[in-house]
Amino acid sequence: MAGNTFGQLFRLVSFGESHGKAIGGVVDGCPAGIELDVEKIQLDLERRKPGQSKIVTQRKEPDTVEIYSGLFEGKTTGTPIGFLIHNTNQKSKDYSHIKDSYRPSHADYVYDKKYGFRDYRGGGRSSARETASRVVAGAIAKQFLKEVKINAYVSQVGELKLDEHYQELDFSLIESNPVRCPHPEMAQHMEEYIKTIKKEGDTIGGVITCVVQNVPVGLGEPVFDKLHAKLGQAMLSINAVKGFEYGSGFNGVTMKGSQHNDTYNPDGSTQTNHSGGVQGGITNGMDIYFNVAFKPVATVLQAYDTINKAGEKVTAQGKGRHDPCVVPRAVPIVEAMAALVLADYSLLVRTNRL
Amino acid sequence: MAGNTFGQLFRLVSFGESHGKAIGGVVDGCPAGIELDVEKIQLDLERRKPGQSKIVTQRKEPDTVEIYSGLFEGKTTGTPIGFLIHNTNQKSKDYSHIKDSYRPSHADYVYDKKYGFRDYRGGGRSSARETASRVVAGAIAKQFLKEVKINAYVSQVGELKLDEHYQELDFSLIESNPVRCPHPEMAQHMEEYIKTIKKEGDTIGGVITCVVQNVPVGLGEPVFDKLHAKLGQAMLSINAVKGFEYGSGFNGVTMKGSQHNDTYNPDGSTQTNHSGGVQGGITNGMDIYFNVAFKPVATVLQAYDTINKAGEKVTAQGKGRHDPCVVPRAVPIVEAMAALVLADYSLLVRTNRL
Amino acid sequence: MAGNTFGQLFRLVSFGESHGKAIGGVVDGCPAGIELDVEKIQLDLERRKPGQSKIVTQRKEPDTVEIYSGLFEGKTTGTPIGFLIHNTNQKSKDYSHIKDSYRPSHADYVYDKKYGFRDYRGGGRSSARETASRVVAGAIAKQFLKEVKINAYVSQVGELKLDEHYQELDFSLIESNPVRCPHPEMAQHMEEYIKTIKKEGDTIGGVITCVVQNVPVGLGEPVFDKLHAKLGQAMLSINAVKGFEYGSGFNGVTMKGSQHNDTYNPDGSTQTNHSGGVQGGITNGMDIYFNVAFKPVATVLQAYDTINKAGEKVTAQGKGRHDPCVVPRAVPIVEAMAALVLADYSLLVRTNRL
Amino acid sequence: MAGNTFGQLFRLVSFGESHGKAIGGVVDGCPAGIELDVEKIQLDLERRKPGQSKIVTQRKEPDTVEIYSGLFEGKTTGTPIGFLIHNTNQKSKDYSHIKDSYRPSHADYVYDKKYGFRDYRGGGRSSARETASRVVAGAIAKQFLKEVKINAYVSQVGELKLDEHYQELDFSLIESNPVRCPHPEMAQHMEEYIKTIKKEGDTIGGVITCVVQNVPVGLGEPVFDKLHAKLGQAMLSINAVKGFEYGSGFNGVTMKGSQHNDTYNPDGSTQTNHSGGVQGGITNGMDIYFNVAFKPVATVLQAYDTINKAGEKVTAQGKGRHDPCVVPRAVPIVEAMAALVLADYSLLVRTNRL
């Protein structure tokens, strides 16, 4: 209820603050019998971790996952999987610039108003550091989903936008560059652009596209828990996300029904896929694809005006080691949240029929 | 779990098929002591109902709500509010064209695959008729929220798009035209365009913008249940919705952090509002605004190719009385879902502090 | 959250007040494909309904269930089953004796304190009339469970207590007498005793024993949702219930481990069954059996002292047509709640393994 | 859903196996602003821990709680409180006697059937070691509840049963003896009896009585989530519990309504308290009191017959360091679960009224 739980049957409870001793989580409802490759979890954490390239934050945190339960002789037991990622980079640094004043477009102000006070160190609970727990859970979910393939990539940074549809791209190139854009030339442009932005002490937004393939027919629940509605919640719950669209998305608005409708082939597949693999909230077996819009990171390394707790105007200076553009590191987070949604519905679908 | 429940503390359970005896719902968790004006509920139902103008479906259904419980001497008692809306327009008509074949981009195929069979009459549970139950619950939520003002309007139909920001519009004009666009001139264009589309037997998509004002600070829960994430789920759960964005949305992607950040005024308000009234998933007291993208309605009154249950190609003819454009009637549905989200978080926020 | 929902995957939401227009409910999560015999539902309602014999309340209510959704061509569709039972016996009678004063050991006082006011007519939401909705949902659950056999019977009324263990009794005799005790001689004593109590204008408590047979191995979830823990909640949620015990129950306290342990047979069955069919919260395939203790009904047809809203002492006179002993009519309610618990866990168990 | 979560608003998620690296949990929904005394948590853990006296298991585990999140400058922040208790006593001992065969009346058999295999070391997830996590969460809940007083004590061991009603006892004597019975003379008898049982290599059951005082009026939700129903689930979810009764309990069955009804005093208190502080599922401000029946521990240090995985009869020898009687160590667990229930309802009650 307090917002730290995601999923109904395959469920993650997340905990931890940016500068506490550790962050962590509990994956509950993971079926028994999965041979869990812990290295794969660690691999996804590496894709998310700070310091991995020059275009991301230069903080150094190893982000090593420790699993405390739910595994026996290499297999999931059906009992909850508790895990920790220790925070190793908690400098006893000077937080005075954020302790008593509110950084614009951060959660500082609203946390203070909501809870009466806040753990201001590095953003506390509102820090995107929390998403490491999601990556762990998502990596477990991926191993449960097995045959389902989830690939996310950066399709836009600022005004630099891929024209290619996902089907024209080679997903094996995603990890070939620090931007995680499967179009090497565009990736190069994006990388340079992010470096320029970084030099300015500024930040820029971006879009991640995610494609889910080999999806069984029938996942998703009618009415409020339509598959794409839960995917939407999942993506919008990631820090800095401002928008979500699937299939034809916002562009579908300008289409006519006669154009937009996806005609069936005899095998139940469709000739076009404006539906984005989901009809009436339920998967039809076609690829699911969706876009997630990220705003520019709020921390800019510039001077800014704001207010303090007393409501007085103050001037502050942005500092720290932050991402000039969040999307390269957010790729595994988008994948993780997609995996969590699909894992949950993969269990729910088992209960639909006599 | 089966997708028919929305909300945690202020909760709607919805039931009913398009051509069953009735649809209905239960609102559970509505606080005691609200003087409930049932006419206001009926008024919102009128805004959603078929046959209200020439640009919507010409079906005639009175859509009268009957409340069975939870009210005593005009006030809510804190116990669940059960209600029905009888289906009065269930013609014993010929469904043979949809009984054995699958309408493209409808839920026919996936329901059959998921459940083994389906109530094919008028789309059954997947029909947008279900949203009438949401309008009832939302109208109750609005009366609980009282001081919070929720206004939705049509901001785009096909390529016809309002340039004006919501602050330049007069919400009192929304109901002055059948399109529900508060810009009379544009409304006129949209209306004519929809009529043209209708004559073609075709359909067209659109966008609804929703603005929530007078929102208290502190609504929304961290991490997975961020206010905008639940709003996103709520909107994406409405039939035909393909996308959701709030605040700067997809446009925010191209902005720099230094531009995008909303500078605080001494009273905690912000000079700009790219955040869309939500920071870190929690309301900051500024207006919440968001866009909801609707695809064109799948039912076109044209001949189309599809497959039947046996996987054989068949040709069918779209018929019935359907909406050429769904957005005019979807305005109260968007408001209802927004109200449900806000009501839920208005209760949750009471539990945050000692 | 507000207490009107039971079950996670197979779920009942109940609504309605004793003297409103109707009570009802929604069964959500019932799997598709069950050929539902509505007469069987009605049959269980008859077993619960007032006026069925001389030892129960003489109110006359037909208690006819009307189903509004979730059924198509005689089968469940996997969508929510909404139903109503109209209240036909709502006399516009004089409630002045309970409107402003609090009946001892009823919920009048606490409802007023909790909600600020209450629907005082016939107890409103706190009336046991609500259990009719449970009987409907339970009768649906029974048809899902099919091979599982649930039999409840009256094993004690006041001091009159059956010595026989359930295995010495013939369940086919349960419905042969108005007490619903499968021991005809004891049933006779109980019936006479209840008549005596009734003449005194008094009431008496009793115990219902319930036996569940043909249960698959593996139902129940570890830790907090142990099968017997949810059965306990289910039973204790029935009006007037004061205690629950399963297997060896309170008597098991005096046994030694060496006596109490159930030795396995080669087929996994056990030689004794002190475990009551549940070990570690999970069914082992043996019979589940448990006892439910009911206090005497609070409404006595005698004069009594109490207080009014102003906290002043008043004298009142019990009146109305109430049950001298609630257990005969509670038998189908106990069965219904057991069926709901088992149906829920029968779905959950499908999600345990890869 | 998988049974490891308890509570709706004040919620514990528990994880960990008896012989894994650690057990732990997450308390989510704890309100912000509580000055949390971690030593008090540790104190309750000491009351539960093995090796504390000669009548409990002689295992040695320090059971030290480590808190990882949700606390800042000594106060709860409103964010989830993640904690671990490391398992320090995991001997690499010989489990061959339980690896391939099933201990009678343990969860070995049902876990294997349910999940396909099990972590057999020390009972794995089904071990009562898990209850240490509950004690931590309960100790946090107690500090939230503050003015509410929860006292549990041993009222019966085998046939040795306290005749005194809780009001005749001095709760300050509970911790004065290893049995945790506030009647020193009876405590002495019980202690000797347990020692005798221990010498026999056998075990014996017992009853814990729990009393909750200074409870506000209005806690508890109608219908399915009645306060006593959730208390019942909470208690029955504790390992080895076979029965629960509150107020008059099973004895109330033999009373007449005219005797059982609790007459109101002008201040809303009642002259008697057969209701056990709960009417219609909602607290009336009187003391809540209830009994919890524990069966004898299944592990006896004797030879026993059982079956192995292949269904073959085998003979085994009970060994290890187990409790001859579980109730002395279960006292803080009962209190913890009561605290969790009350904390949850203390938050829910805030949402009842406009």
Say how many strands of chain A there are. Answer: 16
The most extensive interface between chains reads: A-B, 112 and 112 residues
Q: Any idea what the CATH superfamily of chain A is called?
A: Chorismate synthase AroC
Order of helices and strands of chain A: EEEHEEEEHHHEEHEHEHEEEEEH
Shape of chain A: globular
State the assembly state of the protein chains.
homotetramer
Structural class of chain A: alpha+beta
Q: Hey, roughly how much beta strand do the residues of chain A contain?
A: 15-25%
Lateral arrangement of strands in the main beta sheet of chain A: 1-2-3-7-4
In short:
4 copies of one chain form a homotetramer. By secondary structure, chain A is of the alpha+beta class.
